[in-house]
Amino acid sequence: KILVIGANGQLGSVLIPELRKKYGEANVIASDLQKPKQSTGLFEVIDATDQNKIDDVVKAHKVNQIYHLAAILSAKGEQNPLQTWDINMKTFFNVLEVSRLNNVQKVFYPSSIAVFGDRADLNCTTDEAYLNPATVYGISKAAGENWGQYYFLKYGLDVRSIRYPGVIGYQSLPGGGTTDYAVDIYHKAVNGEAFECFLKPDAALPMIFMEDAIRATIELMEAPKENITVRTSYNLAGASFAPQDMVEEIQKLYPKFEVSYAPDFRQHIAEKWPKKVDDSNARIDWGWKPKYDLKRITSVMVSELKKQYQKKSDDSK
Ligand code: VAH
After folding, report:
1. What are phi and psi of 112, to 5 degrees?
2. Ligand 1: residues within 6 Å at CB?
3. Where do runs of H (alpha helix) occur along 78-196?
4. Which of 90, 106, 188, 289 is the most exposed place for a label (fewest CB within 10 A)?
């Protein structure tokens, strides 16, 4: 049985249906701080800062895999640094301890390109680059990677991790990250609204389409244990591009789409993140290969969001 903690988030809301399709409805338990109204399937209300609650659910459902997707992201995390640290670390320690004590077979831990800072070669950042993260979120993810490796080395717990780039998808909204602009821009274009970007036009970052991110996650978790050579976290990327590249691609479909730039504190965060990452270890160890570039991302985002907004307006009639 698989338990997903943080199932209501940007990744969790797409991973749950995918896992249920693959492993069966009855084998995937979603959990988060509250049960969404429209939620279907098994759901447990879990505040992941409560170790006993996680332990009860793991025992009750005989959980043997946990995906820990709960965390406070980079931008939001800067509002209250010590609280961000406490929540991001406490929740992961709870997952590691409950997994160790209940012989959970596999744990997935999402890391991020946020673990890198200006001491790495940000033009092409490898798995092994030096980590000097400049956000609390990045610091907590770098620490979490090492805790995951520690539980593997000391207790044999099979913790696997991916350093996600900015994730772009039409199924869910991001929650407080520095790459959130890359989802919002499509919603504004499809709704014929102007878009104000909180990064500079040339702020290139590694990005990935939701379908690629979810497929990579499941491929990593399904890879034979002996193939996994990176026990901190694997770099992963779909494509790297800047806001101006997205605008150019979108204006091919929406020539009148207007964009203005008002860089804020998130520009300073982005400047210390990689422009491009080297994900060759993922390609070698578990056959990773992205399927979506900016052109394909744009065409799928636009066509799916058009359908969503059309349905919304039909339903409201
Ligand atoms: C964030 N979307 O911006 C997340 C992610 C690399 C980006 O970690 O914080």
Report:
1. -160, 155
2. 73-74, 112-114, 137, 164-166, 174, 177-179
3. 81-101, 136-155, 181-190
4. 289
